[in-house]
Amino acid sequence: MAKLILSMDGLVLKEIPLTKERMSIGRKASNDIQIDNLAISGEHAAVVTILNDSFLEDLNSTNGTLVNSQPAKKHFLKNGDVIELGKYKLKYVAEQVQQVHEADFEKTMILRPSTLKPPPAAEQPSATPAEAKNSFADTHAGNTPPPVAAAPPPTAAAATGAIQILNGASAGRELELTKTLTTLGKPGVQVAVIARRPHGYFITHVEGAQYPVLNGQVVDAQAHQLADHDVIEIAGIKMEFFLKNA
Q1: How much is the pTM?
Q2: Which long-range contacts (CB under 8 A, 24 or more apart) does 203-206 make?
């Protein structure tokens, strides 16, 4: 479980496990993490955690929030990141989290290359001679099998989402979006997440000055629901979102 280590002037004050999906930080007593200091806003920031992924969001605080000495509005947290609020520091410690070290976006944007797989072959096996003979005999004997009703198309909630890379060295590769949260992008440059919810898939900008592009339009900071065959662009890599049969 990830945690935050609160300190001031090098003195560790306490450790806070990230036990909730959203934990607020601020001067007011109603916050999950209260820091009673006038340099900190009443509701200063929040840390959102989904499974093994956490990101920090500044809540329009008066004095701002720093991560590793750099101003941050939204920041995808990595193990060892230090959040600074006035004189106080919160070190993010992620236990048993796989860290991405490669700089090549095409290798790292979809977690691990091993999760990528080529699209399945479209060719279907033809009927064997025995099957063809049985079908011919049934038809001429008056035993025509009843027609099979076509299955209804899957809905966004029932179908599994996937993305296919459209350009670069990994073009044509696919990744099924089976996790609750899938992180895409280059940490420190541009990061977005695709969240799997009961009523569909949603993309949200997390980190970076540039926002993701969806069907040729730059999205804002809000979560946007993805539709079948939407085209997403993150850090120059284009990918198509589509729904697979459940």
Answers
A1: 0.46
A2: 203/232, 205/74, 206/55, 206/74, 206/75, 206/76
